[in-house]
Design a protein that fits this description.
Elements lengths: L2 H14 L6 E2 L1 H14 L5 H22 L7 E2 H8 L2 H18 L7 E3 H11 L3 H10 L7 E3 H11 L19
Helix pairs in contact: 1-4, 2-3, 2-6, 3-5, 5-8, 6-7
């Protein structure tokens, strides 16, 4: 498992831990889902529902895989063991990636404009300079759009334990690092 992958998921854990108690709980995912869906103005209800379901699946996968004592809480150490295990989490990440990227393309044309990408990523909690650096790394068109497929693959790569020097690394730390 690469250090870069651990740094990426450490950041996501901190963003998803909405109440800052050092544990993930179902309520954290409900809050994040609400924030992201609210930022998806212009998306249709089916896309918003898919996003809500993807967040629910994310939590349910964690709970099913890790919450042996049934207390409804997941620690950081437990989280890392699951999300960086492709056999345990790839299908969940694929559904999450598809739903998030679809929110970015409300016209269904397969393209995501920078303002929409920024709004969704800010809703998750990433920092604006890092978001812009990531968008730029995805190679936007002259009209400042990226392909939905590019974003989907970027999300999947973000959770890959063996990947380094990927665009998603720009979300961690300073965007110039």
């Amino acid at each position: 498992m690469r250090t870069e992958a651990i740094n990426r998921v450490r950041l996501v854990f901190s963003l998803f831990d909405a109440n800052g108690n050092g544990r993930l709980e179902a309520e954290d995912f409900d809050l994040m889902s609400s924030r992201v869906v609210e930022a998806a103005s212009g998306s249709d209800e089916s896309a918003k529902t898919a996003m809500r379901l993807a967040f629910r699946r994310y939590w349910e996968t964690l709970a099913a895989e890790l919450d042996a004592d049934g207390d409804g809480r997941i620690s950081y150490d437990e989280y890392v063991r699951c999300v960086l295990s492709p056999e345990r989490f790839d299908a969940t990440i694929a559904a999450f990636a598809d739903a998030l990227a679809a929110l970015g393309s409300p016209a269904g044309d397969g393209l995501v404009a920078r303002p929409r990408f920024v709004a969704l990523m800010l809703a998750i909690g990433f920092d604006r300079p890092n978001i812009d650096a990531l968008f730029d790394a995805f190679g936007p068109s002259e009209t400042d759009h990226i392909a939905v497929a590019t974003w989907v693959e970027g999300i999947k790569d973000y959770y890959s334990p063996e990947k380094a020097n990927i665009p998603g690394d720009l979300l961690v730390g300073s965007p110039t690092a």
